[in-house]
Description:
By secondary structure, the chain is an all-alpha fold. It is about 75% helix and about 0% strand. Helix 2 (about 25-50) runs antiparallel to helix 4 (about 60-80). The longest helix is centred in the C-terminal third of the chain and has 32 residues, at about 235-265. It is globular and about 65 Å long.
Amino acid sequence: MSAREPQETAQVAVEAGTKKVQRTWDRVLVSSFLAGAYIAFGGLVAITVSSGLDPKTWGTLPTLFTGAAFTLGLVLVVIAGSDLATGNMMLVPLSAMRGRIGLGDVARNLVLVLIGNLLGALFVAFFLAVQTGVIGGAGADPGSAAGMTHERLAAIATGKTTGESAWQTFLRAVGCNWLVCLAVWMSLAATSVSGKILAIFFPIMAFVAMGFDHVVANMFFLPAAIFAGVPGLGWGDVLLNWLLAGVGNLVGAVIFVATSYWYLFLKDQPVPSTPSAAEH
């Protein structure tokens, strides 16, 4: 299995971040809508495969199953090609650190991608999770598949909104995107589809199994819970979680991955001349 050396991976990451801000806004929006939907698909299958497993019997294994299934989301993002805010939080600032783009480019890209991710996640949450009956409503038979998925979703959503303090949510988001960005970084090191999938699997499985907070995943889990009638959950709780998770994800990406690897592999390297607009 061929792979790039870390120095080469850093250069590839810079180029990837640069290309992400060179497209028109409508292409970025469509690409990010797809990524939000892909992450939501990962969340939906994770709920499905981990439902109905009594912790008294299974212990913490359901979180492992959840994490393993959720890896589908980032595999789709990376292999099929789309824009995920949490990955862009590493790639686009890294490109800015190399002087390839400006801070305004970074801000515009991240805002637009977050909007697209939200729309994609909401679409899957409402139409493909709740309206299809895959996630049951509040009155679903507890012994049915719909009832078990509803109970599982309720446990995840209430845990993220009432089971964590603001500080805990922020820190969990930092840890989450440290791992997510490492998954993206290592996927850039791989040059085969199988290598990229393997690079993605373990970091994503780990952050989900540990209960860390991913802002785009929460754009699926929390609205889906509201759409499914999970009691005690309001949009104020959701927005606060998104804010804390988004800021924590940004810190995890910029500080622990982008800045670290810029310092290790790019800081003392000459900056290549920027191609002219005609070459883009």
